[in-house]
Amino acid sequence: MDFKITLKNVRKNFSRLLVFDSVNFELTIGSSLAIAGKNGSGKSTLVKIIAGLLSPSAGEVIYQIDGKKIDKLDWFKYIGFVAPYLQLYDEFTGYENLEILARIRGLKNYKNKIEEVLKRVNLYARRDDLVRGYSSGMKQRLKYACALLHEPIVLILDEPTSNLDAEGVEMVWKIAQEQKKKGILIVATNEAEELQMCEEVINLDELKLKSREQIVK
Amino acid sequence: MLSSIWAIFLKDLKSELRTRYALNALFMFVVVTISMILFSTAGEVVSGTLLSGLLWVVIFFSAMSGLSRTFVSEEDRGTVIFLQLATRPSVVYFGKLLFNFALIFGLNLFIVIAYLLTMENFKVKSFDVFLVGLILGGIGLASASTIIAAIIAKANTKGTLYPVLSFPVLLPLLMTTINMTQLSIEGATFSETIGHLRILISYSAVVIIASYLLFDYIWKE
Ligand SMILES: Nc1ncnc2c1ncn2[C@@H]1O[C@H](COP(=O)(O)OP(=O)(O)O)[C@@H](O)[C@H]1O
Ligand SMILES: [Mg+2]
């Protein structure tokens, strides 16, 4: 299978605030992209646009399988997403959150998959506790479980290691390595070390400088 | 698709039963409004027609305070992205619509029972007309409230805007259902209310179809 994400001249502005202009890249299976930049440079905005949670002000994002465009409404089937602003249902347990997600997604034989991801993020022992009682690191782990449940082709991580302990950070690196083998990995981060997770880097601060130079010319 | 809609409905139902986010407030609201009507009309003979109108006042305001919860709570808690990443917008819409149907049926049942028990002059002569009016009115109310709640959830002034925006949209529905309830008290036959039924059914159909078409745009920024 041939899977491709293309961004063509993507621009985003919130009314008069221009976040970025003309972002261009192409990702296929096996490729990985780190998005770097200062706080407020638009990393989260860009990953939201890639995931289809936000619409670009100009330009387009294209998902393709074997050269055929995928309807934007179906992108969710291919995406796993972890971010600080993604919240889980804290009135449910970790297991229930995953079960709800599996049912909404219409996954088959989800019981085994849930147990598998829970073990992978090391939450199995606490699966029947309410998420309300989870620490922020445990919540972050549960987000990984949610993101990996359907074995997505595209894994998008915004601030991947926030709130995680050393062992959790190691888990993230492992997940990132495995994802690169079979799919696409996109990481938005302001930690220099985490940029190493990916083969390619796009720096939004530099991008801004470049486009400004062009305007001056 | 259908099983996903059902999954959203079950999630909301389970969440509501566990948190009593809307239920407790609704219960108190109904008890308080009905007691107020009782106190303020004590010792007076209130006509059935007037009581029909008051019944829908109770239903309208309690529906307004309860039906917006499904969307507003997702938006407030930041769980919207969870759903956006899990399924198509239309699935979320129909799941929420289903939940609001369930909520309004439960609510109306409770209100009507409380009303019939406390209001002596509220005597329904044509029960079929009354029941159909109540059910179709509830469906219409839930349909319009669901899409308005989806819009309001994105706005900053969630609470206050809701009844304001809902009222003009719901006016034709309310006038028809109030009239139908009055007719049921006067003992009208079912066939006399066919015109009302047509209005109620087409109202809900139009609102649901329009919402379905609109929802993709409302749901994602
Ligand atoms: N919904 C929004 N409305 C207006 N401005 C926004 C909105 N979301 C983000 N911004 C602005 O866009 C810029 C980029 O934000 P963000 O993508 O969150 O940055 P980062 O993730 O790189 O720290 C910031 O200046 C922020 O204030
Ligand atoms: Mg960010």
TrEMBL record, chain A:
GO MF annotation list: ATP binding; ATP hydrolysis activity
CDD domains reported in the protein's UniProt record: ABC_DR_subfamily_A
Name the UniProt record assigns to this protein: Heme exporter protein A
Keywords in alphabetical order: ATP-binding, Nodulation, Nucleotide-binding, Transport
Keyword Transport: yes
SUPFAM superfamilies to which the protein is assigned, alphabetical: P-loop containing nucleoside triphosphate hydrolases
Residue intervals of the ABC transporter domain: 5-215
Pfam family, one: ABC_tran
Organism: Candidatus Chryseopegocella kryptomonas
InterPro entries: AAA+_ATPase, ABC_transporter-like_ATP-bd, ABC_transporter_ATP-binding, P-loop_NTPase
Listed PANTHER family: ABC TRANSPORTER ATP-BINDING PROTEIN, ABC TRANSPORTER ATP-BINDING PROTEIN NATA
Family as reported in the entry's similarity comment: Belongs to the ABC transporter superfamily.
Automatic annotation (TrEMBL), chain B:
GO CC annotation, single: plasma membrane
Domain of life the protein comes from: Bacteria
Keyword Transferase part of the UniProt annotation: no
GO molecular function, one term: heme transmembrane transporter activity
TM stretches of this protein: 21-39, 45-67, 97-117, 129-153, 160-180, 200-219
Keyword Hydrolase tagged: no
Membrane topology reported for the UniProt record: Multi-pass membrane protein
GO terms of biological process kind: cytochrome c biosynthetic process; cytochrome complex assembly
Compartment(s) where it occurs, according to its Swiss-Prot or TrEMBL record: Membrane
InterPro entries: Cyt_c_biogenesis_CcmB (IPR003544)
Main location as per UniProt: membrane
Family under the similarity heading: Belongs to the CcmB/CycW/HelB family.
Name of the featured protein: Heme exporter protein B
